[in-house]
Specification:
Layout: H1 2-19, E1 28-32, H2 38-47, E2 51-54, H3 57-70, E3 75-78, H4 87-93, E4 96-100, H5 103-116, E5 121-126, H6 142-152, E6 157-162, H7 170-184, E7 188-190, H8 197-202, E8 207-210, H9 212-215
Parallel strand pairs: 1-2, 1-8, 2-3, 3-4, 4-5, 5-6, 6-7
Helix pairs in contact: 4-5
């Protein structure tokens, strides 16, 4: 059942790539497995899916530490807010961080990566709607923050991430992200979730974060 949900989404994405004439686009599906036990995730792993997302470091450690040692192809994405005091654990376990949203966090990641000899793939989170309840760098501040991350902290910034405002015109926000990514010369865009990933792909999302449409509703 869960495999069918994933393959249906994969087929829909491929049909939209053809419809939107985006033949050079190959978006990766991050199966956001937060709150779901490893027994619910194993069918996808056994099917060969390798990109998974978690939003709490402690939960991810408990679920993924052993299985990642056994399966080197797995790629774990931190998609939730990352606290500075959890960075040392996150750097050990995760391959991608999607939620770099402030300078203190960037500095902490930089220090921990040097200590551990790691080089995670990192997205800067952009607060497109300048919403108080959401984290992220304001669009007009992204270039300055990006330059610090690259030049001063030697972080491997591969792209931008957003959670757009709840709006009818969500596609407009995704298009803003596409233009911002191009201005910075970046390759990756992490945007689109279960309700809006088609709109995100239309604007060139390279990673979509899909949870409930794969795993079902959370408790």
């Amino acid at each position: 059942m869960i495999i069918n949900k994933l393959t249906t989404i994969e087929s829909e994405i491929q049909s939209k790539i053809i419809e939107f004439k985006l033949s050079n686009l190959d978006p990766k599906i991050i199966a956001v497995s937060k709150t779901f036990p490893i027994k619910d995730i194993l069918p996808l792993i056994n099917h060969g899916h390798c990109h998974f997302g978690e939003n709490k470091v402690q939960e991810a450690i408990e679920k993924w530490s052993d299985i990642k040692i056994k399966n080197k192809s797995l790629k774990l994405h931190m998609v939730g807010k990352l606290q500075s005091n959890k960075v040392k654990y996150a750097v050990n376990l995760f391959d991608y961080i999607h939620s770099l949203d402030n300078l203190k966090l960037a500095e902490t990641i930089s220090r921990e990566q040097i200590k551990k000899g790691k080089n995670l793939k990192i997205f800067i989170q952009v607060n497109l709607g300048k919403e108080d309840q959401k984290s992220g760098i304001y669009p007009e501040k992204v270039k300055e923050f990006f330059d610090i991350c690259i030049n001063d902290l030697n972080l491997n910034i591969i792209g931008l991430m957003c959670i757009p405002p709840n709006a009818i015109n969500v596609g407009d926000f995704f298009y803003q992200m596409k233009k911002l990514k191009e201005q910075l010369g970046l390759n990756e865009l992490s945007m689109g979730m279960s309700s809006d990933y088609v709109d995100a792909i239309k604007s060139g999302a390279t990673f979509v974060r899909i949870g409930s449409k794969i795993f079902g509703k959370r408790d």
